[in-house]
Design brief:
single chain; 120 residues; alpha+beta; 3-stranded mixed beta sheet; 4 helices; binds zinc ion
Length: 120
């Protein structure tokens, strides 16, 4: 599958309009910069906006995903970090109790493997 940052924005807007994301007040894709780094060490990464004026950043490894399904799962994972930034429920723990609770809701909704989805 060939995809570019614009496609990630489309997938992001699709997910944010579906449950359970639609209840979490995510900003539209215009408030997020999507990047496709050629990194093998991480599947995805979320970088919170430093001052509210700049967009948040979501990176999805361009070399670790070949299929829509895996891109969607990694994107959904990074979107949970964005949800946490919006609701200020993030802390120094990478995947804290709030993250795991939201991850369980996502995995239940879509029948995804919770352990794989959370990643650690
Ligand atoms: Zn994570």
């Amino acid at each position: 599958m060939k995809y570019d940052p614009k496609h990630l924005g489309v997938m992001y807007d699709m997910l944010r309009q579906l449950p359970p994301f639609d209840k979490w007040g995510l900003p539209g894709s215009e408030w997020v910069t999507f990047e496709l780094p050629k990194r093998k060490d991480v599947l995805g990464e979320f970088i919170e906006s430093s001052d509210g004026a700049k967009p948040h950043r979501i990176k999805i490894s361009a070399v670790s995903h070949d299929h829509l399904f895996s891109v969607l799962q990694t994107l959904a994972h990074e979107m949970l970090h964005l949800v946490q930034a919006v609701h200020k429920t993030n802390n120094t723990a990478q995947h804290n109790a709030d993250f795991r609770k939201r991850a369980r809701a996502v995995c239940k909704e879509y029948g995804w493997d919770y352990k794989f989805f959370v990643g650690s």
